[in-house]
Amino acid sequence: MTPRRLAIGMSLWAPNLFSGIRVRRFAPDWTSAEVALHVNAFTRNYVKTAFGGSMSAMTDPYFFMLVRHQLGGDFVVWDTRGEIEFVKPGRGVLTARFEVPRERADELRRRAHGGAKVLEWFETDIVDADGDVVARVRREVYVREKRRVTEARGARAA
Fold first, then answer.
1. Average pLDDT, stretch 20-43?
2. Angstrom distance (rounded) from CA 45 to CA 16
3. DSSP letter assigned to residue 113
4. Which of 26, 39, 59, 148 could crosslink 3 through cysteines, CB 3.0-4.6 Å?
5. pLDDT digits over 64-92, tens only?
6. What are phi and psi of 36, to 5 degrees?
7. Spatial CA neighbour of 118 closest among 95, 142, 137, 150
8. pTM of the prediction?
9. What's the rounded Cα separation, in Å, for the pair 120 and 81?
10. CB under 8 Å to 82, separation ≥6 — which residues?
C-alpha cells in the first residue's frame, strides 16, 4: 500500500467520508500525515461548531498507522486510548498534523525488541484556518514485537 493510495482510501472510507474527514497526505516515508475536518451540517454540534466526536475521530488512527508502517509486520501496533482538550470552538476547515520521526520509531523498535510491551504517547494540535489551536490531542500507541519473531530469534540463538 502506497502512502497516496492509503490517503485516498482513508478519505473514501465510509466513517471518514460521511464525517467530513479527509486525509490530505501521508509522507512517502510514513513519518507524517495531515488530516482535515470540514465542519458542516453533519459534523457540527448544537451550537454550530465542530462536534467533539468528529475531532476525536479525525485523530484516531494516524499515529498508530505511522508507527505501524515504519516498524513493519514484525510488530503488533495499535491505538489504546486518547485524550482531547477542547481549547476554542472549531469552525470551517480544521487540520491536524501527525509526526513520528524515524528516530522515534527506531526507539520504539528498540524498546519493543524481545516482546516487551511499550506504551507511548503522541501529541498533536487541531488548528483552524487561521492557525489557532482548537483542540490539543494525545493518543497512546501500544507496540510489541510479535511472539513469532521473538521465538524465532530465540530458536536461532539456541
1. 94
2. 17
3. G
4. 26
5. 999 999 999 999 999 999 999 999 999 99
6. -120, 150
7. 142
8. 0.89
9. 10
10. 56, 59, 60, 137, 138, 139, 140
Write the single-letter amino acid at 43: T
The amino acid at 27: A
H or E element in which residue 135 lies = strand 133-145
Which residues pair with residue 93 across a beta bridge? 38
Is residue 133 within 8 A of residue 88, CB to CB? The reply is yes
Q: For 138-150, give one letter per residue: b (16+ CB within 10 A) or e.
A: ebbbbbbbeeebb
Rg (CA), the chain: 17
Q: Is 98 helix (H, G, I), strand (E, B) or coil?
A: strand
| Residue 126, C-alpha cell as written in the block | 487541531
Give residue 15's pLDDT.
87
- Confidence label for 5 from pLDDT (cuts 50, 70 and 90): very high
